[in-house]
Design goal:
138 residues; 5 helices
């Protein structure tokens, strides 16, 4: 009986070692695949300016506002008007620029006008060009 136990123990240890070696040999490929495509960014995110992107953005903003109202209601506070908040958040933002930045852009436009005048081209409207440049900045 003791001889059978010894044989069984050695057989189990040998089988375990064999499985361990096979597993170790195959694990290199598994480790190389970790993170290969699980946490990468979406290859083609939707642009907020596209129709689908704008609709998705509006739906997410509405969901956020409704959740905020639910929290306010649980605390006993007055709920906000979701439509007014949507209009405020998604409407055109009033661009507020630093006066120093505006003056720097104005100087650049005036320098551009001087170059255009030297080439014999029509000068740009300085104020309109400053507004256009600032709107392009954000």
């Amino acid at each position: 009986m003791q001889q059978a136990l010894t044989i069984v123990v050695f057989a189990v240890v040998a089988l375990g070692a064999l499985v361990g070696i096979v597993t170790f040999a195959g694990s290199r490929r598994a480790y190389d695949e970790i993170g290969a495509n699980g946490l990468e960014p979406d290859p083609a995110p939707r642009s907020p300016s596209s129709g689908a992107g704008a609709a998705e953005q509006a739906a997410e903003i509405r969901q956020m506002l409704e959740a905020r109202n639910a929290r306010r209601a649980r605390r006993g506070e007055e709920p906000l008007d979701v439509e007014a908040e949507m209009a405020r958040l998604t409407g055109p933002a009033a661009a507020v620029h630093d006066p120093a930045l505006e003056e720097e852009v104005r100087q650049l436009v005036q320098a551009r006008n001087a170059r255009r005048a030297r080439r014999g081209e029509e000068p740009l409207d300085v104020e309109a060009e400053v507004r256009r440049q600032l709107a392009g900045l954000g």
